[in-house]
């Protein structure tokens, strides 16, 4: 019992013991079950309300419908949480169920809440000195008693299993993040139905950022800003140290430009609450009676007016989704009320003459962080329908946050921007982005958020995002990486082992930067999150990344000598100069028809997979591909229905030509030669020699790709240790430096011919080895293969002019 009381008693909750308990159990199954169960509950409420409101209010638009349903649910949840926290009298909501006209009685309770709390959640009339637009819609709705009775009944014992007084804001945010993934649509008959949002489908789902990632980003932005406030004069022994004070901290402005349910803003706000509390305790709480007060049972807590002021001073957010904006506000308001009760709220009304909660309409705003009003200069407004204008939702940062932008921007920009690929971006938006952000080729949406963060971050400020780790090495992002390392100091780069957002199917890393002029001595801290712990990999000068040919965000370190890496690069041209690299066939949803274990007709071709490819060897595994693109695509579309087809047949000319085939999965390049023109699946890449007027033999490049030098280079530039299935991306293949032969030089010409002969021998030896059955014969052939491999390596060392010392380092450090 003592253990239970230490965690769940009112005093324990106020002192933070429950929050620490929840954090310690966050990865365990229980909290996931709470999230899932409560999500199902509020999704059911949305269905109930949507159907009834649509039926009883036939003039509502789809946007009014979504607003009305969301706002009604938010108000009910807010008041119910206030009851369990003893801020409101317990059972008030349930009392409204007595008799008829439940919604009219609820509206009267909502109005009383406005008088008490002042939050935008209950803003029904214009008031002097109050920003934001009042809600003139919901009080006039017609809602039947039955759905409201069903919802409110399930918020009380015995139908409700939740103790709202100890339900952390973070868990509620997790639930709402998933809830926001769907939207209400109206049929032509004005019937409501709930669907997944198109942008959510494109992104592959909704992903809640784990608390440990939020904490890291907040600590390395808000925490660093606070640390930078310590100013030391340079007057020698009597140096004067000025400690940052709350007045200076009140000037700090933190923004999340894609705030979702508000998880990053909650994290930043909590960090600032803790900092202020600790400051007042350190300086003597008796001096700050209006800022801090004692807690029953020991400890101190900030007063409600102080928590309100910190929120209004420091925390800002933008999201394109109006529902997300409302959820962020709700989460922040509930954070303000943590630790409050009816007595503290009443005393605030009595002594401070102000209502309990702030109006966040000027802090958390709805709009498209990436698209400004200049979008309409290129698009004729009259040609855009209402739905398109609503989707675009242009946002002017200079107008919406004028004082902040006049002073140079925000001190901190944080978040988890959407991972929408270029394929999921509307064509008109793409044209605007290319013009506005100077991005070309293939770009993903989060890249634009990085560029906007750098624009909106003031000089000396910090920005930090969690993004897919392909940004660190993919060739398509080279220019953006170069822009970052020339315009900012990269403070830290953190790679995460495994999927942090399992449904998204991507690996992630965190980039944290300070918008400050780069100095030659500045070093980046490289870290790795592995098995619940943050490990330090090492420190490296930022100028090292600047010197790499593709400016990859990787740690070279002592193991992979930077001098050797740069030497290899300087001696060659990127592989894409010589080759077109293509993916293989992707089966989509028709694998059972597309792939077969026997030949049906002349349209069937032998299909090769990654497991059949080794260095200098190509084996067929007995599978055929039924290569009829038009028929297969029709079948795929039929099976997928409204979902996007996943079938990719590729052009036949890709398969018919000779090519180098490389495995997609591996810790280094594994390549062989296709002489006859084979068909291959997505576990392989095919490199087709460009039809240039040049004398290169494709076998020359095969020798380079399979060499120890290229293995060393690849493992230095693309670090994938610890990955269960490390993947070799096309962009990395395209960037590999191939030694360029000067055919007018007899020595180099001779080296080219020598390589071709050695590779020919390797291909032949591997063919013999695959047929050999006697152990002695296999041993003899394997010795010949090893000797030939060493000859190829020696030739490659000579081509790249590597010294004995460099060769030794390469052979000692490559992963065998």
Please write out the topology.
Blueprint: H1 2-8, H2 10-15, H3 17-25, H4 29-56, H5 62-84, H6 92-95, H7 102-117, H8 145-153, H9 169-179, E1 182-186, E2 192-196, H10 198-203, H11 211-219, H12 222-228, E3 231-232, E4 241-242, H13 246-249, E5 254-256, H14 263-283, E6 292-294, E7 300-302, H15 304-314, E8 315-319, H16 322-337, H17 342-352, E9 364-366, H18 375-378, H19 386-392, H20 397-400, H21 402-406, E10 410-415, H22 427-437, H23 445-456, E11 457-468, H24 478-487, E12 489-496, E13 508-514, E14 523-530, E15 533-541, H25 542-547, H26 562-570, E16 572-574, E17 579-583, E18 586-587, H27 591-594, E19 595-596, E20 604-608, E21 613-614, E22 617-618, E23 624-626, H28 629-640, E24 647-648, H29 652-656, E25 659-663, E26 671-674, E27 679-680, E28 684-689, H30 698-705, H31 708-717, H32 730-735, E29 737-739, H33 746-771, H34 775-799, H35 804-813
Parallel strand pairs: 5-8, 5-10, 8-9, 10-11, 12-14, 20-27
Antiparallel strand pairs: 1-2, 3-4, 6-7, 11-13, 12-13, 14-15, 16-29, 17-28, 18-24, 19-23, 20-23, 21-22, 25-26, 25-28
Helix pairs in contact: 4-5, 4-8, 4-9, 5-16, 9-16, 11-14, 14-16, 30-33, 33-34
